[in-house]
Amino acid sequence: MPRSTSVLIAVVVVLAGLGARAALPGVVGGPVGDALYATLVVLLVVLVRPRTSPVAAALAGFAVCLAIELFQLTGIPVAVAERFPLARIVLGTTFWAPDLLRYAAGAALGGVLCRIGGRRAVAEDAA
């Protein structure tokens, strides 16, 4: 997928995630935001390595989210967030196992978006 497409989709995903958290009730907005966080991580993988297959990008994105979630068990993210409040958005602060299901769904969505974006790029190159 071309980097420009990845960036555009990533911006839309960030806006959708922030919008979901702001506009929807917490019981819905939180899970949607968590899933879109994982989607964003997948897109970042593709930005760093544009030729990564959608499946590999989704697996890598999920692995990053899993590592961050497990990192929360150390207490370090809480300490970092106390000094740098915006770090809370990236690192979170509290391990919660259901987040892993949300990340899996978001990573899968990211893989689908990569597949669609990659197909579109191929079709445009052929035209």
Assembly state of the chains shown:
single chain
- Total helices: the number is 6
Summarize the biggest pleated sheet: none
In percent, how much strand structure appears in the residues? under 5%
Query: What overall geometry do the principal axes of the alpha carbons give?
Result: globular
Based on secondary structure, the structural category is mainly alpha
H/E element string? HHHHHH
Question: Which key terms come to mind for this protein?
Answer:
127 residues, mainly alpha, 6 helices
Task: Give a written overview of the molecule.
- It is a single chain.
- This protein is mostly helical and 127 residues long.
- It has a domain at 3-58 and 97-126.
- It is 82% helix and 0% strand.
- The protein has helices spanning 3-23, 26-48, 54-71, 76-83, 87-91, 98-126.
- Helix 2 (26-48) crosses helix 3 (54-71) and helix 3 runs antiparallel to helix 6 (98-126).
- It is globular, with a radius of gyration of 15 Å.
- This is DUF2809 domain-containing protein.
- The chain crosses the membrane at residues 32-48, 55-80.
- Keywords: Membrane, Transmembrane, Transmembrane helix.
- InterPro entries: DUF2809.
